[in-house]
Amino acid sequence: MNLDFGITDLSGTFSVMDVVAALSLAFVTSLVVAWTYRTTHRNISYSQSFVHTLIVLGMLIALIMLVVGSNVARAFALVGALSVVRFRNAIKETRDVGFIFLVMGLGMACGTRFYALAAIATVVICAVVLLMHRFNWFALNVQRQVVKVQVPADGTDHGAALDDVLIACTDEHELISTETVRGGTLLELAYTARLKKGVAPGDLVERLRAVTAGQKATVLTGYDQTDL
Predict the structure, then answer these.
(1) Which residue segments constitute the domains of the chain, with CATH numbers given?
(2) 3-state secondary structure of 137
(3) In the chain, where does DSSP find H-type helix?
(4) What is the pLDDT of residues 130-172, one digit of tens each?
(5) Is the separation of the CB atoms in 25 and 115 below 8 Å?
(6) Is residue 221 a contact partner of residue 201, using CB atoms and an 8 Å limit?
(7) What whole-number distance in Å separates Cα of residue 23 and Cα of residue 59?
(8) Does the model's pTM come out above 0.85?
C-alpha cells in the first residue's frame, strides 16, 4: 500500500499572490490606523503594546477571512476554536474599542479581497479621526476637579465647615462619595467641583486643611483626562 505524503491545497479559492496581497494590505492599513492612534492620543494611558496589537490584529483577521472563505462549516469551526480565548485586560478608553473594531473591519475587507474598499475606508476614517483631533471637536471647556478630604471620624459634623470653604473657592460643588479609611478612624469625602477664577488648587488645599485638623486634602485637576 502506497502512502501519499504530498502536500494538497485544500482551499482552491486563493493563490499565493492573493495571500501576499491580502496580508500586505492589511499590514499597511493597520499601520496607518496605528499611526493615527498614536498621533491623536491625548491621555497618559498610551501603550506601545496596544499599538502593536492593532497591527497584528488587522493581519490576523485578514488571515482568518482567507481561511474561512465561503465555507460555512469552516466558519463555525473557527468560532468554536476562538471561543476558548479569554481576554482579561480592561480597555481604558472607549476610543480604543473603536480602533480595535476599525482594524478588524479593515482586516475583514482585506481577507475577503475588497482591496479598494479597505484602502478608501482607511483614508476616509483616519482623516476624520485626525480632523476631530486637530480641531478638537465636541470638547467641553468646563474643567472640573475632584476634591478629596479626610476628616476625623469622631462624630463631629465637618460637612458645614467644608461646605463654607467650597462655596468660597468654587463656583459649584457636589458630594459624590463618603467612605471610611485607616480602619475607620477617618472619613474621606469626595466632591466634584469647579474652581473659581483666580483660585489655585493649592489655595483650596490649605483652606481645607485648616478646617480638618490638618488631615489630608487632595485636588485632582483634569481628572477626566487622567486614569485614576
Answers:
(1) 16-134 (no CATH), 145-225 (3.30.70.240)
(2) coil
(3) 16-40, 48-68, 72-82, 94-111, 115-134, 159-169, 201-210
(4) 999 999 898 766 677 889 998 888 777 778 888 889 999 998 8
(5) yes
(6) yes
(7) 6
(8) no
- Residue 47 grid cell: 501603550
- Bridge partners for 221 per DSSP: 145
pLDDT higher than 70, residue 83: no
Q: What does the angle CA 22 – CA 27 – CA 31 come to, to the nearest 5 degrees? A: 150
pLDDT in tens, 9-49: 545 567 888 889 999 999 999 999 999 999 999 877 788 99
Question: Who's near 130: CB < 8 A, 6+ residues apart?
Answer: 36, 39, 40
Whether the Cβ atoms of residue 92 and residue 49 lie closer than 8 Å to each other:
no
Residue pair 211/161 in contact (Cβ under 8 Å)? The answer is: yes
> d(Cα 17, Cα 26) in Å, to the nearest integer?
14
Closest CA to 187 of 223, 214, 148: 148
